[in-house]
Amino acid sequence: MLTKQLRELERQAEVVTIKPIEFQTIKKQNMSREEQIAIVREIVEKQLVFNGEFCGLTDLTQSEKAHIIDIGTSILCTKWSVGWEGGSFVQSFVNNDLMGAIGRADNTSYKGFKFFASLIYNVGMPMELNY
């Protein structure tokens, strides 16, 4: 009976020491802050293309569009703790403080409220940033 228990313990030790293949192939990516922010900006730009019309952002000037992308990037970066935290408007928006966000919004940010809400609730953190 002792040898049977010893063999079972040896078998369990082998099972414990074998690493799953998925954990062997995943490597931790070290990206700079700028690279992380560039990934987030690309996500925001794609979302603006796909959801801009739905969110009522069809008649924007180039500077307004750039501002919407900047604020959207700041919102997602703040939500995901990438880079620096956003300003007072972004902090209020991420913290779900509607009155604070309205009070701190400029004209362009006010136009983008629906878009920002769709970003914060519908876009998940990409795998490249999860580490």
The tally of strands reads 0
In terms of structural class, how would the helical and strand content be classed?
mainly alpha
Largest beta-sheet characterization: none
Average pLDDT for all residues: 85
User: Per DSSP, what share of the residues sits in E-state strands of 2 or more residues?
Assistant: under 5%
The helix content, as a percent range, equals 55-70%
Which stretches are poorly predicted, pLDDT < 50 over at least 5 residues?
Answer: 23-28
Q: How far apart are the termini?
A: 47 Å
Rg from Cα? 23 Å
User: Can you count the helices?
Assistant: 8
Oligomer: single chain
The total domain count is 1
Q: Helix and strand string, N-terminal first?
A: HHHHHHHH
Backbone shape: elongated
Write the layout of secondary structure elements.
Layout: H1 2-17, H2 21-25, H3 33-51, H4 62-80, H5 88-94, H6 98-104, H7 107-111, H8 113-122
